[in-house]
Design a protein that fits this description.
single chain, 245 residues, alpha/beta, 9-stranded mixed β-sheet, globular
Length: 245
Amino acid sequence: MPDTADPVRRSPERAAGPSLASNSGESAPSFVDDQGAGMRIGIIGSGHIGGNLTRRLTALGHQVTVANSRGPQTLRALGGETGAGTGTVEEAIRDADVVVVAVPLMAVPDLPGELFAGKIVVDADNYYPDRDGDIPELMDGTSSSRWTAAHLRGARLVKAFNTITAQHLLENGRPSGAPDRIALPVASDDVDAKRVVMDLVDALGFDAVDGGTLDDSWRQEPGTPVYLADRNADGVRQGLAEARR
């Protein structure tokens, strides 16, 4: 079932229990103030990528609220494991500084697009025709992020986290300068929003590589040299340059 808005509104539930210890060895995360409070991050989608981003971002001290199409009651285990809040899609978006969208691409049109206006929105999705069906614009060469931006009007959209497996996202973060540090491309039309997400990528233990604009983001989609390749920063830059339609 796609992760879309739950029709029943509930107040976010913040689960008891400690946050996970970081497993990447990174230094103090960005965006955390002197009192240890991090950014407010909404995560839409509790599958492999959404779930592991919930684990990693709560471990870094961010205030995470996770939501899915089935409602907060289905997220109690994830909330209890991580200390993340659980809520409806609308609640996860409403007070967030950054919203991560990690749902099947076919579910994007069902999201409350108007609520994303002005928000930094991380598009972690990929287009898989066998799952998502025929989407004419994407079959004609439009990048999936450009298509998503058209549905989430006014969002400060950033493409990221779509080139790495969920397991490697959870386990393979490394300190800055580590020889085996994986790099992730980050693309956006909004320079400031891109910088915020690139800093998050770095705090999670990965090198962030500027992937250009949303129209350039096809270079990091499935089938390109950087997709699931776990390259370092130079390798990602080379792969982006070598990508062909």
